Amino acid sequence: MLVLKATVVSCSRRRVRVLPSFLSRCNSAASTSPCGRMSFDEEKQKFLNMPAEEKRGFYKGSVTTVDQVPTWPEYWDKNKSSVARTLEKADKVDEQLAGKVSMWQGDITSLEIDAIVNAANSSLLGGGGVDGAIHRAAGPNLKKECATLGGCRVGEAKITGGYMLPAKYVIHTVGPQGEKPEKLRECYENSLALAKENHLRTIAFPCISTGIYGYPQRPAAKVALSTVKNFLVENKDAVDRVIFCLFLKTDKEIYEDLLQKYFGLD
């Protein structure tokens, strides 16, 4: 057993107990752990307050800004001749509403926006797929913060800092296993509610639950698009852009089709 002894010195008639130097350094920074290292909260604030240009140096890859992601009207104008129109009747919307959504095929961790959504597991401590990629890019402090949140139930959403990600925040939500539309709807609703509550103007979603959780792609896309549309109609000024971040070619084809149904343009 290691026994630490304090040294006693005299100072102007007072006897002062002096702790060993390395313990003094630890105690002098109440929120650091271990000594000499910033806590995750300090790291979180550091990255939140960091200029975008400086923060880009921490991300190992190219960064994508929101102005590099076309809105749905911009995408439609450029690609409508090659995109098969849906067989279902399109719900026509005004271009301003349609301009708040995007479909984009790329790496969600590269997006320099207010928040990206993580398709997490209930522990919130990282996993495979999108979850693992986000944790790797954000760095170890993301897991440290997640460990304080007490997990997350299916359909719930919780928010953390983005740390070394280009995004400022990560909103973690746990999707259902199998086709459970009410629970999947809650994932999108609760994530959007957190974005609104925290005054986040731009947010990106992966295809929640369609990987190893086994939710069929097209039904999942319908839930995602209908839920986001309802939110945008009811909260017209809450967000500037919702990005559907797609990985598979089949997801891209489904969203090309269904975006014209839910956000129909001439």
Automatic annotation (TrEMBL):
InterPro entries: Macro_dom, Macro_dom-like
Gene3D superfamilies documented for this protein: Leucine Aminopeptidase, subunit E, domain 1
GO cellular component labels: nucleoplasm
One function term, GO molecular function aspect: ADP-ribosylglutamate hydrolase activity
Pfam family, one: Macro
UniProt domain Macro: residue ranges: 88-263
BP-aspect Gene Ontology terms: DNA damage response; peptidyl-glutamate ADP-deribosylation; purine nucleoside metabolic process
Name of the protein in its database record: MACRO domain-containing protein
